[in-house]
């Protein structure tokens, strides 16, 4: 089956202003790489909007309404020091979350086994009642809850290898039956969460890594913790919160990984998806702020997604 790319032009119109690291250039770079000749077999789909019902499975209803009501008619507005919205941001955020939900529909209908959601704004820092870290709605958590509610899946996992801990996803998953969240991330680093186990939440697996972690220690962390935890959970459906900011060239972190390390991690996760979940694997873009590294990493990641599809 073809690997699918789920995206929408509105995600390019989410304007965070001059000099902001989470810029439209990130997605432009990703899409340009995925339209190169070696990716001619990819299948492209337009992301639909998430519904309010989809969002309020993990977000407070008041937060959803307030966030969409805050979208300015012109100019820009800061939701916090890092998170900026413009007139097109509401549409982009709805398409980003809706695209990951549509990916769930596609894999469970047997139309594909692998989807990469090339969307923004990213999502894993968004809390139930708060925008944070460039994120408005928690795209992967919205889709995981959608898979449970609409498709009645019993075991849904998220593996997050973004260099920043997915505090929002952790909050939304902690102690919830049928959900599993595993994360490697630099610590200490924004947002300061993810130091280790969460009391009362055995379904959360945090593997904090120190600054300057390189290939060997990262791969050991995956082999010794992330993959065994994922296998023990036995996911029917697996998501990747695919941040590429653990790359050595990224300006917002201090890790020493290469694209080969992140491709290796992708293959390890895919092998678990093949064993337990009929190969169902959905990846969604999170961080990655060096444009050249981001494009290279995404291209290699998507190629790896399709290797056993």
Number of domains: 1
- CATH fold descriptor: Arginase, Chain A
Write the CATH architecture name: 3-Layer(aba) Sandwich
How many strands? Answer: 10
Helix content: 25-40%
User: Helix tally?
Assistant: 9
In what order do the strands lie side by side in the largest sheet?
A: 2-1-5-10-9-6-7-8
Major pleated sheet = 8 strands, parallel
N-to-C CA distance: 6 Å
Taken as a percent bin, the fraction of beta residues is: 5-15%
CATH superfamily: Histone deacetylase domain
Please state the CA-atom Rg, rounded to the nearest Å: 17 Å
In CATH, what is the class? Answer: Alpha Beta
Specify the structural class: alpha/beta
- Give the overall form: globular
Poorly predicted runs of 5 or more residues: none
Q: Give me the strand/helix succession.
A: EHEHHEEHEHEHEEHEHEH
Mean pLDDT value: 98
Structure overview:
This protein is α/β, with parallel strands linked by helices and about 300 residues long. It has a single domain, classed as Arginase, Chain A (3-Layer(aba) Sandwich). Helices cover about 40% and strands about 15% of the residues. An eight-stranded parallel β-sheet has the order 2-1-5-10-9-6-7-8, with helices on both faces. Strands 3-4 form a two-stranded antiparallel ribbon. A hairpin with a 5-residue loop joins strand 3 (about 75-80) and strand 4 (about 85). Helix 1 crosses helix 9, helix 4 crosses helix 5 (about 140-150) and helix 7 (about 215-235) runs parallel beside helix 8 (about 260-275). The longest helix is centred in the first third of the chain and has 20 residues, at about 90-110. The N and C termini lie close together (about 5 Å). The model has no long low-confidence stretch (mean pLDDT about 100).
